[in-house]
């Protein structure tokens, strides 16, 4: 009996884990934290509206400030890091300090924050600043936000957390359009990550370092490892299939013929499945590593490594495997 042809058709990598057409690139920036954080008796704070750049005047800047401020206050409340003074009191203090509270949105600074904090008689003032907010119809959007806590008694910045998120739309797949994360989505990720960093800061009681390992790189090497294991397993079953086929050819009775034929079919099925899975995993892992833009962005911070972490806007990975056996 002659051998049949093994046919494996593999359609791979449309959007694998972090290799989707849409993704968020997080540029990690180490936060500033004062060395004596644990000794700072800061409990009651006022959270001021996020300051926005001039180019957002008339471009929905006030709405953006409100959204980001509310998101950040929710993060602080959920993490129970401080007691926060009421919003009405904050607005009254801002009006006393600036006349028109809206002026704070474009003119707010550390000295102004301290002035408001003294009127409110709080331990510290937290406010953010939108350093970059780019929303286009192209394949990339950017949001950069910085939050800081100023202690009223010492007039010093206790911590400063800065987040830079870049939304990227990749090449369209089939008839699908290029989709790019919106600036609103990027700001939500930025605020959430800032909250996580603050929790880590208070858990450690001092400065922390932000991980510079790309999640795309982690997935890439993980898939390569899994692919290597699957490929080795496929080789093992291929060896079993080859040996069973040799015994089938040398069989001297019908019972042995049936038994060895069954073994060959079972082993063939296993090595084809494991081989196809191994190729898919190896190919996907290689794709993720080759297309990792981890050296494509660098924060303008001295000594900062040009690395990124990638948050995929996930779409599933598809592959199809077709096999034809020996018999």
Task: Find the CATH superfamily of the largest domain.
Answer: ABC-type transport auxiliary lipoprotein component
Estimated radius of gyration: 29 Å
CATH class of the largest domain: Alpha Beta
What is the H-and-E element order?
A: EEEHEHHHEEEHHHE
Based on DSSP secondary structure assignment, what is the total number of beta strands? 8
Describe this protein with a few key phrases.
327 residues; alpha+beta; Rossmann fold; eight-stranded mixed sheet; 7 helices; disordered C terminus
Can you put this structure into words, describing what you see?
This protein is of the alpha+beta class. The chain has 2 domains: 29-204, ABC-type transport auxiliary lipoprotein component (Rossmann fold, 3-Layer(aba) Sandwich); 215-294. The chain is 43% helix and 17% strand. The chain contains 7 helices and 8 strands; from the N terminus they run βββαβαααβββαααβ. Strands 1, 2, 3, 4, 5, 6, 7 and 8 form an 8-stranded mixed β-sheet that branches. Strand 6 (140-151) and strand 7 (156-169) form a beta hairpin. Residues 1-20, 301-306 and 314-325 have low confidence and may be disordered.
Entry summary:
The protein contains seven helices and eight strands. The protein has 327 residues and is of the alpha+beta class.
Please specify the SSE layout and strand pairing.
Layout: E1 22-27, E2 32-33, E3 44-47, H1 61-79, E4 83-84, H2 87-98, H3 102-107, H4 110-120, E5 124-134, E6 140-151, E7 156-169, H5 183-204, H6 215-249, H7 254-290, E8 309-312
Parallel strand pairs: 3-4, 3-5
Antiparallel strand pairs: 1-7, 1-8, 2-7, 5-6, 6-7
Helix pairs in contact: 1-5, 2-4, 6-7
């Amino acid at each position: 009996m002659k051998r049949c042809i093994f046919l494996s058709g593999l359609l791979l990598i449309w959007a694998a884990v972090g290799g989707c057409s849409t993704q968020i690139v997080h540029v990690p920036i180490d936060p500033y934290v004062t060395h004596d954080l644990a000794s700072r008796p800061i409990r009651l704070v006022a959270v001021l509206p996020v300051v926005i750049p001039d180019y957002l005047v008339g471009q929905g800047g006030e709405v953006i400030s409100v959204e980001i401020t509310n998101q950040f206050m929710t993060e602080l409340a959920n993490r129970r890091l401080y007691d926060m003074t009421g919003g009405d009191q904050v607005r009254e203090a801002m009006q006393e300090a600036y006349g028109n509270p809206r002026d704070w949105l474009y003119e707010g600074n550390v000295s102004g924050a301290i002035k408001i904090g003294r009127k409110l008689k709080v331990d510290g003032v937290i406010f953010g600043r939108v350093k970059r907010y780019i929303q286009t119809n192209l394949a990339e959007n950017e949001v950069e936000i910085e939050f800081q806590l100023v202690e009223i008694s010492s007039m010093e910045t206790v911590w400063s957390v800065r987040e830079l998120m870049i939304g990227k739309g990749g090449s369209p797949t089939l008839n699908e359009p290029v989709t790019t994360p919106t600036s609103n989505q990027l700001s939500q990720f930025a605020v959430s990550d800032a909250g996580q960093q603050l929790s880590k800061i208070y858990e450690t009681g001092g400065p922390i370092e932000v991980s510079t390992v790309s999640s795309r790189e982690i997935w890439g090497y993980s898939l390569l490892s899994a692919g290597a294991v699957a490929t080795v397993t496929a080789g093992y079953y291929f060896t079993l299939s080859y040996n069973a086929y040799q015994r089938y050819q040398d069989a001297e009775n019908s019972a042995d013929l049936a038994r060895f034929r069954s073994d060959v079919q079972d082993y063939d099925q296993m090595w084809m499945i494991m081989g196809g899975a191994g190729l898919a995993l190896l190919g996907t892992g290689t794709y993720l590593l080759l297309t990792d833009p981890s050296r494509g962005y660098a924060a303008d911070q001295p000594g900062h490594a040009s690395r990124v972490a990638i948050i995929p806007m996930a779409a599933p990975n598809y592959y199809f495997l077709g096999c034809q056996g020996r018999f």
